[in-house]
């Protein structure tokens, strides 16, 4: 007898509908119910009725938010961001697998200085399942789609050219899912999530910047690089928390502020990194005091919600605390020019510290005393901790701490080892921290706050 394989069940990434009838049936379902623009399969009544009985603000543009298929990630992404996001998960999973084969040199995150939560990730049990999920998604991503969402301007943009004004102007109109995320109209986050955030806080790891310095020194593809102050923590999300990247980046900037005396009024933050709920309170208090108050009208309020925040909310918080900052909008109608402007701005920022010191004997890498940069583009934000120039093609690279991803056990195992750091493939270890043209080419506009 010949065994017949059980048909593969496919699940719609938008609504969870499941089918065993193959990829064509799934694509037909997605085109019918989740098409970008007007689907030929829908009646006029279907087009004008809000989904799931929820109201619309009229400015959502019904963005295609997709939940990451990797177990425990919980992130909702614009469709145009999914492929690169999955590549980074592949890299993350591979790095974790490497750590299993070398347990003596790769301690768990819970043993790393500065870590505030234990990792429940078991690479040997999850890597195969995650790899299958990633492969299935990459097959789906080959279907015709539009990345036009990533070409919209960032929310609350001024109309001028690149600006160095101290505050990004706001329009004050109620925003929707395109700007505030999947939960733009949510009044309150679920109790289980609030409990998780209160009990676990965040994953924070100290000592990563010096490790990056050593990896860059070892890396044959690096011509030169600059890094921010080595005290900055990499803060990443908890398993299942979803998208709080704006808050996580404010926390990373705060990790610098609470450990140095270089910035006026930094002491107002106290001696510990503010929680998500404390950051929400700072922002709401700023609005109460008529600081960037249009943010309240645009968001409908953020306290105890999962709505995305961005540069305007960071501006409100730092203005409330009277911590000096500079916010820039960098944009160009051509994506390559926008990326060039971003790279030039970041490189000049790090080169501006005349007190930077060489981190090792090679002289390729300089550690500065500068704060990291809050970096925003449509749909996501990160913390820029450095700049790298590659030998090949003279290409620029942003060096970032991305709240979406944790440091691999291989990298955390190098903390505190100084010049003793040895890695056979430093390019590979740096991949999760680099953002270059492959990532940035999707966008025409960026925001940087320093």
TrEMBL record:
Compositionally biased tracts (Polar residues): 48-58
Biased composition (Low complexity): 98-127
UniProt-recorded Gene Ontology molecular function terms: hydrolase activity
Domain of life per record: Eukaryota
Location of region: Disordered: 39-67, 93-179
UFSP1/2/DUB catalytic domain sequence ranges: 222-448
Keywords assigned by UniProt, alphabetized: Hydrolase
Protein name (Swiss-Prot/TrEMBL): Peptidase family C78-domain-containing protein
């Amino acid at each position: 007898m010949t065994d017949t394989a059980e048909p593969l069940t496919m699940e719609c990434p938008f609504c969870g509908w499941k089918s065993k009838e193959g990829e064509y049936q799934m694509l037909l379902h997605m085109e019918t119910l989740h098409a970008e623009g007007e689907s030929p399969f829908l009646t006029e009544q279907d087009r004008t009725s809000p989904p799931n009985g929820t109201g619309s603000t009229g400015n959502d543009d019904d963005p295609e938010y997709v939940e990451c298929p990797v177990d425990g990630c919980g992130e909702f992404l614009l469709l145009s961001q999914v492929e690169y996001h999955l590549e980074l998960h592949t890299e993350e999973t591979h790095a974790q697998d490497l750590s299993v084969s070398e347990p003596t040199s790769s301690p768990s995150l819970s043993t790393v200085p500065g870590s505030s939560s234990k990792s429940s990730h078991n690479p040997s049990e999850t890597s195969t399942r995650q790899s299958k999920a990633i492969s299935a998604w990459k097959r789906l991503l080959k279907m015709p789609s539009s990345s036009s969402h990533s070409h919209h301007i960032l929310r609350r943009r001024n109309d001028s050219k690149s600006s160095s004004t101290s505050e990004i102007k706001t329009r004050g109109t109620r925003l929707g899912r395109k700007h505030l995320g999947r939960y733009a109209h949510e009044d309150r986050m679920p109790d289980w999530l609030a409990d998780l955030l209160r009990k676990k806080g965040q994953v924070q790891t100290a000592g990563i910047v010096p490790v990056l310095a050593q990896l860059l020194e070892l890396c044959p593809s690096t011509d030169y690089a600059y890094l921010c102050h080595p005290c900055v923590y990499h803060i990443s999300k908890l398993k299942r928390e979803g998208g709080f990247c704006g808050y996580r980046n404010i926390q990373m900037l705060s990790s610098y502020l609470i450990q140095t005396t270089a910035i006026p009024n930094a002491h107002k933050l106290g001696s510990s990194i503010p929680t998500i709920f404390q950051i929400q309170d700072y922002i709401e208090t700023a609005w109460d005091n008529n600081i960037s108050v249009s943010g309240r009208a645009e968001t409908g309020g953020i306290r105890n919600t999962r709505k995305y925040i961005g540069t305007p909310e960071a501006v409100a918080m730092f203005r409330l605390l009277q911590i000096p900052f500079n916010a820039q909008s960098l944009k160009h109608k051509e994506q390559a020019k926008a990326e060039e402007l971003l790279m030039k701005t970041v490189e000049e920022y790090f080169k501006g510290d005349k007190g930077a010191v060489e981190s090792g004997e090679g002289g390729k890498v300089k550690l500065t005393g500068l704060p990291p940069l809050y970096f925003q583009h449509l749909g996501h934000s990160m913390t820029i901790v450095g700049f790298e120039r590659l030998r090949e093609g003279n290409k620029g690279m942003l060096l970032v701490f991305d709240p979406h991803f944790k440091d691999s056990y291989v990298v955390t195992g190098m903390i505190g080892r100084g010049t003793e750091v040895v890695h056979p493939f430093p390019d590979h270890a740096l991949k999760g921290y680099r953002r270059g043209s492959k990532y940035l080419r999707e966008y025409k506009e960026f925001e940087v706050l320093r």
